[in-house]
Amino acid sequence: MLQNNRVLIGKGEHELYLMGDKVNRHGLIAGATGTGKTVTLKVLAEGLSDMGVPVFLADVKGDVSSMCLAGEKSEKIVSRLNSMGIDPDSFNPKSYPCRFWDVFGTGGVPVRAKVSDVGPVIISRLLGLTEVQTGVLNIVFHVADDLGWQLIDYKDLKAMLMYIAEHRAELTTAYGNVTSQSIGAIQRALLTLEDEGAEQFFGEPDLDINDWFRQTEDGRGYVNILHCVELAQRPTLYAAFMLWMLGELYEKLPEVGDLDKPKFVFFFDEAHMLFNDAPKSMVDKVTQVVKLIRSKGVGIYFITQSPSDIPNEVLAQLNNRILHALRAYTPAEQKAIRAAAQGFRPNPAFKTEDAIAELGTGEALVSMLGEDGAPCIVEKATICPPQSSFTALENAARAMLVAQDPAYQAYKDAVDNLSAYEYITDEMAAEQEKAAAEQAEKEQAAAARQAEKEAKAAEKAAAAAAREEARAAREQEKALQEQYKAEGRDKYGRTKMQASLEKAAKSAVKSESRSIGRKMGKSITRGILGNSNNAAGRLVGNAAGSLMSDLIGGFFKR
Q: Residue 238's CB: how many other CB atoms inside 10 A?
C-alpha cells in the first residue's frame, strides 16, 4: 500500500516503509520456499505501481499473474490487518495494470534481442564455452562488426561461424588464431541450445525497453510480468535474459541522479541462477552494473532462497532488505543464517540469528534505508497482504489480455532483415557463380584442346591412311607387273602377239588415215581453187592432204 510516496511493507513495533527516493538503492528479498517471498514481491510491486513506477518481475511459478485481478477482503486478510493495527476499511482490493511478456511467445508478447546486443560474453555463458572458445566467439563478433554485417538472429551467428572457419587462415594475422576445433565446439553448443528453443530469443523486432516504461492514464506504472514457467526450466537461458536486460537498462538509460522516485524497478527472481558457476568476469560486470545503474533511476531487487546465493560484492550493494525464515538442517545452512544475521543492523530487543529461524509464514526481518540514507535497525514484522488476487490467472484470460496489448501487434511476427546471413549467402553464391564460370571456362578450353587434339589425330590418321593406300596401290601395281612379267606380258598386260597386232593395226590405221586425209585435202582444195593441175595447186593440195592426214591419224591414234 502506498502512503505519501512510501510503500507500506509491514508492521512490527512500527510501520515499515520503503521510501520512494531510496528505492534505487536496491534490495534483497530472501527466504526458504513457502515463507512468503512472492507475497512480499507483490506488495512492493503494487506500491511502486501506485507510485507511478513501472516494474519488471519474473513469474516463475505462474502465480504472479494474479496481480491483474482484484483481490478480496477475506476473513484471513481482515484478521491480518487487525493484528497489524491497520484499519481494514483502509485496505482497498484492486487489480493492477499488467503486461505479459514471454521469451517463447506463448504466454505473453514475444521478447527478442539481437545477437549483437546480447554480446559474446553473455552468449559464451549461455553456451557454456571455455575461455579459449569465448575468445574465438569474440573474434566472430569483431569480424562481423568490421565487415558491417549485423548479427541479428541464430542463423546469422551460425553463418558467421562458417565464414570464420572458411577464412580463418587469412583472418589469423589480424584477429588471432582460430582453430577448427574451437569453431566446431561452438557450433555443437549452438545446436544443443537450438534444440531447447533458445533461438526464439534472438531476432527482430527486438525489444525497445521504452515499452517497459509505460504508465496508465491515471498515472500508475505498468507491472511487466515475464512469463517464465518454461524459461525457468532452462536456468542458463533465464540468467542470460536477465543479464541482457540489466545491460540494456544500464547502456540505454541516461544519467538522472537521485530522484524522488525511481524511473524503473527490476525484480530478479531466482537470482541464484545468475550466479551459479558464473565466472569472476561476469560477477564483476553485474557488480559494476548494480553499483552504477542507480544513478540512472533504476532499482534492482534480487529474490532468492538465501542471501548466501548472492556474491558478497553484489550483496554489499543491496541496502533494502527483507528476510523471511531460513531453515538450517546442515552446518552449512547454519553458517548461512549467521552470515545473514550479520547483514542487518542489530536490534537490542532480539537476537537476529535466532529470529531468522523462528519466523512464521508471512513474517520477515525488515531493514530499509531511513530518510537519512542509513539502514534502519532490523525489525521483526508481519508483511502486508497484497491488494491484488491470490488466484492465478487462467490461460485464456491471459491470452485475451496479451492479444489486446498494443505491443503484441508490434512484436508478434518475427521479421528477417538484411544481416550477416544474407551477406554471407550472397557472397557464397557469387563465389559459387565465379567458380562455376571458371570451371565452365576451363571445361571449354579443355574441350577446345581435345577437339584440336582429335583433329590433329584425324589428320594424322588420314595421312597415314593415304600413305597406306598409296603403298597398297604400289604393291598392287608391283604385283601386277610381276604377274605380267611372269606371264610374258608387257607393262600394259599385253602378250607379244597382242602387242604386234595392236601395232600393225595402228600402222594400218595411220596409213589409211593419211590416204584419206590426202584425198580429203585435195577435195577441199579443188573445192576452193577449182580443178587445177598447175604446180601451185598441186602443192596446196598436197599440203592440205598432209594436214588432214595428220589430223585423222592423230584421232585414230587416240
A: 22
Region for residue 74 given its phi and psi (left: phi exceeds 0; alpha: psi -120 to 50; beta: otherwise): beta
Amino acid residing at 400: M
Q: Are 226 and 101 in contact (CB under 8 A)?
A: yes
If you write DSSP's letter for every residue of 111-146 in order, what string do you get? Answer: --B-HHHHHHHHHHHHHT--HHHHHHHHHHHHHHHH
Q: Give 188-212 as a 3 state SS string.
A: HHHHHHHHCCHHHHECECCCCHHHH
Residue of 182, 173, 167, 198 whose CA lies nearest to 131: 182
Three-state SS at 333: helix
| Separation in Å, CA 189 to CA 115, 194, 241, 273 | 15, 9, 18, 19
Contacts with 149 (C-beta within 8 Å, 6 or more apart), sequence order: 156, 160, 419, 420, 423, 424
Chain-centroid distance of CA 3 in Å reads 50
Q: Please tell me the pTM assigned to this model.
A: 0.77
Residue 504 has pLDDT above 90, yes or no: no
Q: Helices 115-127 and 180-195 sit at what angle, rounded to 10 degrees?
A: 100
> Of 333, 239, 250, which Cα lies nearest the Cα of 278?
239
Provide the pLDDT confidence category of residue 134 given band limits of 50, 70 and 90: very high
pLDDT, tens only, 372-403: 899 999 999 999 999 999 888 898 999 999 99
| Residue showing cell 585423222 | 552
Residue with cell 540489466: 246
Q: 3-state DSSP call for residue 301?
A: strand
**Which residues lie closer than 8 Å to 170 by C-beta, 6 or more apart?**
none
Listed residue (237, 271, 232, 206) closest to 127, CA to CA? 237
Is-cis flag, bond preceding 93, omega within 30?
no
Yes or no: say if 273 and 303 are a contact pair by the CB < 8 Å rule.
no
